[in-house]
Amino acid sequence: MPWFLLPIIGFLVGGFGTLIGAGGGFILVPVLLLIYPDYSPSTITAITLTVTFFNSFSGTLAYSRLKRIDFRSALIFSLAGIPGAIIGANVTGLLGRNSFQLIFSVVLIALSIYLLVKPGVQKSNSCSLNGTTKREITDSEGTKHSFSYSLKLGIVLAFFTGFVAGLL
C-alpha cells in the first residue's frame, strides 16, 4: 500500500471514531492487520493507541473550551488508567498474532452484542447523586452539571479500561 494513503485512512477512521465517540481503534486495528500482515500485535496496538490519543486529545480540547471537563476526576482516573495501559501493552508483546486476532475478535463481538441488547439510556433533567464522590461543574454557557460516581469502582474500571486499551 502506498504510504500516502495511510494519513487518509487515519483521518477517515479517526473522524468516524470521533463522530461516534469511540476513538476509532476498533476500526483501525482490523485495517492495520489486513494492510500489514507481518507486523506484530504490539506494533499494531502502538499505532492504534497513537491515533486514538490524538483523536481523544482533539475532543479534549473542544470540551475544554466549553468547560465541560472535570479535570480533577480525569486526573484521578488517568493515574489508574495509564498503568493499566502500560501493563496491557506489555501483555500484547507476549501474544502471537493469531492469539491477538482471536482475543480482539471475541472482544469486538462481545461489545457488539452488548450494544445491540443493552437497554436504552433515557435522558433526564434530574440527576441521581448516589455515588460516593459528588461533583459539579459549570460550563462556558453557565449551565451547571452535577454528577456522582464511586471513586473505588471508577479507579478499578479505569485500570481495567486502560489494560484493555493497551492490550487491544
What's this entry about, in short?
The chain is mostly helical and 168 residues long.
The secondary-structure element order is HHHHHEEH
Identify low-pLDDT runs: none
Instruction: Kindly provide the radius of gyration, computed on alpha-carbon positions and rounded to a whole number of angstroms.
Output: 18 Å
Termini separation: 23 Å
Percent strand equals 5-15%
Counting DSSP E segments of at least 2 residues, the number of strands comes to 2
Major beta sheet summary: 2 strands, antiparallel
Please estimate the helix content. 55-70%
Number of helices: 6
Oligomeric state: single chain
Q: Which class of secondary structure composition applies to the elements? A: mainly alpha
Global shape: globular
Average per-residue pLDDT, rounded, comes to: 85
Tell me the number of structural domains.
1
Q: Going across the biggest sheet, name each strand in turn.
A: 1-2
Layout of strands and helices, then pairs:
Layout: H1 5-20, H2 25-35, H3 41-65, H4 71-94, H5 97-117, E1 133-138, E2 144-149, H6 151-167
Antiparallel strand pairs: 1-2
Helix pairs in contact: 1-2, 1-3, 2-3, 3-4, 4-6
